[in-house]
Each structure stands twice: as structure tokens, then as C-alpha cells.
Amino acid sequence: DCLLSRGLGDVYKRQEQEGWFKVEFIGFASSDTSVAPTGKVTYYLANFDKSKEEESGLHGEIRTGWNQVDLTDLGTGVHMVVVNFVGSDKSDYGLNTPAYCALDNLSISL
Q1: pLDDT tens digit string along 61-97?
Q2: Residue 2: helix, strand or coil by DSSP?
Q3: Backbone angle region of 12, left / alpha / beta, with phi > 0 → left and psi within -120 to 50 → alpha
Q4: Is the pLDDT of residue 102 over 90?
Q5: Coil/strand/helix, residue 26
Q6: How many CB atoms lie within 10 A of CB 19?
Q7: Long-range contacts of 45-49 (CB under 8 A, 24+ apart)
């Protein structure tokens, strides 16, 4: 759904040729008294904004298939990972792009 929505447009949104869409993985460590962020990894899923080409690694394209994302930069002592979606196509009600992902083959080192 997200791929088709971003690339072709759908009944809920127009095709946005200067937009972008990314996922953020935010790590958190917790103790008995607090929760603190440990790091963040940002991964662009689509980019059609020329000003974000270097940052995203995408040049007017949408990522397809399974992509490996290295979460090492979340740091050590991570107890929880929050997945957040951010995009250029939003309204008063939030993001217009379908916001979901699938995770597979997770490798965790203790």
C-alpha cells in the first residue's frame, strides 16, 4: 500500500513528486526510575525532494523489496525501540502516507 500510495497516488492523496518519507528507529534504555533515549537511526523509504538527495541516498525514487537497516547506532543497553514515521505529506490529522513496516531476521546481541 505504501509503495503504491507514494509512487502512484491513491484516492486519499495526490502523487507528490517533491515529497519524502522516512522511518526513524529510536532506542531507549530504562532503569527503575527513568527512561532515556540511547540513539536514533533514520532510514528513507522514498525521496523526490532534490534538497534531501545526499541525506537520503535516494534520487527521485522509492525503495523496494527487503532492505537491511543497521541499528548499531541505537547504542548499548537498549530496552525498547520505538518506530516513528515522518513524511512531507501531512495534514491537520497527521501523516497521509500509510505508516507501517515489516521487520524480519532481527539479530540481537546481549
Answers
A1: 999 999 999 999 999 899 999 999 999 998 999 998 8
A2: helix
A3: alpha
A4: no
A5: strand
A6: 20
A7: 45/2, 45/6, 45/21, 46/6, 46/7, 46/19, 46/20, 46/21, 47/20, 47/21, 48/16, 48/17, 48/18, 48/19, 48/20, 49/18, 49/19, 49/20, 49/88
Q: Left (φ > 0), alpha (ψ -120 to 50) or beta: where does 60 sit?
A: left
DSSP secondary structure letters along 34-74:
-EEEEEEEEEEEEE--GGGHHHHS-SSEE--S------GGG
Q: Please compute Rg for the chain using Cα positions.
A: 16
pLDDT per position as a tens digit, 25-48: 999 999 889 999 999 999 999 999
Pairing mode, if any, of strands 20-30 and 35-47?
antiparallel
